[in-house]
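Human: If only I could read C-alpha cells as easily as an amino acid sequence. Take your time, and here it is.
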Amino acid sequence: MSETFFPVRASSFWTARTGHTHQWGPGKNFEGTGAFGPWMVTRDEISDGEILTLETRLNSEVMQHATTDMLLFPIPTLISYVSSFTTLEPGDVIVTGTPGGIGMKRNPPVYMKAGDVVEIEVSRVGVFEKYDCS
C-alpha cells in the first residue's frame, strides 16, 4: 500500500448513478467523473492506520460524524472490488459510501433548502463550505 495513491478530500460531490443499480461502489465510481476540492492530500501525507474524522454540518448542526476506521471494507479490498468494474489509472479516486445521518433517514427527515450552509470536514485535510444550497 505504501506506493498507492490514497486521496482524502473534503468536498461536496456529484454521485453519478445512471447505469448502475448498486448503492455501494458502482453507483459512485465511473471513469472520468467526480468533482474534488478545494483540497486533496496524497498517500504520503496520511500515515498507515491513521484514523481520520469525517463530519458534515448543516447550518452548524452536525448531521454526519464518522471515522475512517468505521469503513466496512479495508482499502485493498475496495481497490480490488472497484477495479472489477472500471479501469483504475494513477491518480484515480475511489468514492465509497456515506456516514449515517443522511437527511431523509432522520426522524423527522431533514432536507436542505435555499439559504442553508453545508460544511464538510475531513481531519488533516480541511473544511469545504457551500453557502446557499439552492
The radius of gyration is 15 Å. The CA atoms of residues 56 and 120 lie 4 Å apart. Confidence is low (pLDDT under 50) at residues 1-22.
